[in-house]
Amino acid sequence: MTVWGAPKQAWRKGPWTHEEDKLLAEYVTFHGEGRWSSVARSTGLNRSGKSCRLRWVNYLRPGLKRGHITPQEEGIMVELHALWGNKWSTIAKYLPGRTDNEIKNYWRTHFMKKERSAQRQQKRKALKLKQQPPQPNKEETAVGDGGGATDHEGRMCEEAATLLDEYLMNEGLWWNQQQQANNIAMQMQQVACNCYGGGVISNGGYIF
Q: What confidence score (pLDDT) does residue 33 get?
């Protein structure tokens, strides 16, 4: 219990020494994790319980991984962060050997910088689009440049070609019918000549 007016204990801060790490490791090995407030009384360390816990969890705990985060670990980190957000201690449970503090620092160093860079690029693109003059409509440009007239002329040519084909087909049909009529008239004229001794008056292939 803190007495009113008594100065608070001035805990040591700064880098840990090798002797302090050894005392903390021996204490945790004997008493286990979780009793951080009693470390100072039991070992004589002039460190707060919070400082002892962070030192053990982040640096002295057996099984800690050293070195860079692997691509596989990074992928797990991204997936779990999408589920739980900044719950670093929960994410650390799925990355054996990695501490929550290490994961948090890695995320802030790498991913937050990438997100900010992407956001800045999007803002620059949007600003460029606003500064550019509006582009004319392609269809309107084609009509204004005579593209519409060209299309109209093309349709007129197609219609004219169709009419010409129909005319030629009808003309050929009429020509065939006329030829057949002339052939029949000539045959009838020959028959009449044979019957009446040639006394038949013909006018344009028809008998009168």
A: 86
